[in-house]
Batch of 4 targets.
Target 1
Amino acid sequence: VQLQASGGGLVQAGGSLRLSCAASGINFRHHDMAWYRQAPGNQRELVAQIAHSESTDYADSVRGRFSVSRDNVRRIVYLQMNGLQREDSGVYYCNTQYKGDDYWGRGTLVTVSS
């Protein structure tokens, strides 16, 4: 299982970014996918998730600003982030589970400047 996240960068507060995570080694359409983030000194936290049924859920801190979606043909999960705030800064990781194990992408850094 490989997860490759991309799309991070430096953005001003109020700006937008779209993260992508390309998955391989799994039957993508049957897997729930999730985005986590970790800021320096903080624990990794769940940001958004999208089930294989395409139902979605969000952390309260991002609900209404972030949107998670998936492309089962391209095997990519996206995280559209709008209205970015400094508190959204961190390394964003893509996650899925396969045969009971968690798999993580390398992560992509998002830095929001004021």
Target 2
Amino acid sequence: QVQLVESGGGLVQAGGSLRLSCAASGRTFSNYIMGWFRQAPGKERTFVSRISRSGGSTYYADSVKGRFTISRDNAKSTVYLQMNSLKPEDTAVYYCAAGAAEFDYWGQGTQVTVSS
């Protein structure tokens, strides 16, 4: 089992920045691909970004490309999502996920609200 705890969400004005963190425990962190997803009110959960085990490969949804940056610190068992130039449509609950191939483990989510 892997336990994931997100933090760093909050209320920010459009154009602002936030940095989300996700601390993992329970298994060897570097064994897992890590990802971020989000779920806006009344909508399905959607993919935001993922990062390889070593951190050398990253992938982003088109909607966040160029604004968000995913990174990880395997020594701290933590993955980050730096979010810049935030837009009201980025408002959602953001979830951290981990998996060996598919994402099997999920955090409880952290709320991000972007005001216009």
Target 3
Amino acid sequence: QVQLVESGGGLVQAGGSLRLSCAASGRTFSRYTMGWFRQAPGKEREFVAACRWSGGSTDYADSVKDRFTISRDNAKNTVYLQMNSLKPEDTGVYYCAARVPALAWQYWGQGTQVTVSS
């Protein structure tokens, strides 16, 4: 069982930066692929970024490549999402998620709101 708690959301102007954190419980955190998703008002939840247990293998949505960076600290059971050059279209609730590699996303956090003003 894994429990996830996000933090770091807030209101920022376009062009600014935020860093989201996701603290995970569970002794086997390092075995999970960790990811970030987001959901804008009136839209479906969409994939943002993910990283494998080692942190060396990452994947990004095209819309955030070269602006967002996912990283993890297995010693702290925490995954981060550094968001730079934020745009109004990045606004939404950001969710942390975890899964066993190759399986469906199984665990979800409660979400943290990110609002980017123009």
Target 4
Amino acid sequence: QVSLVESGGGLVQPGGSLRLSCAASGFTFSSYAMKWYRQTPGKERELVATISATGGSTNHARSVKGRFTISRDNAKNTVYLQMTSLKPDDTAVYYCNVVHFSGTYWGQGTQVTVSS
């Protein structure tokens, strides 16, 4: 079955960097676009970034453009989110997502806290 496992979150000071990873299994990873979302309490889940199946096309939310970069390694079945110049407003639980023919799947999320 489809499984997505995020890692790499933590506490970081404003201006710092983190790299999130999402290890995928149970499906043909290289055939599917992948997405990163984030959510804070009381708010809807926000789409942060999207990457095509081959990695040749990416899209980033305006709020993170120029600071975050989505990438993938199809040999490792892993999608990444490199986050730089982090701000307190980036504090959220970050989720990876895949829309598979059998359904929409989410990981368990990884907490990112940006605070001094």
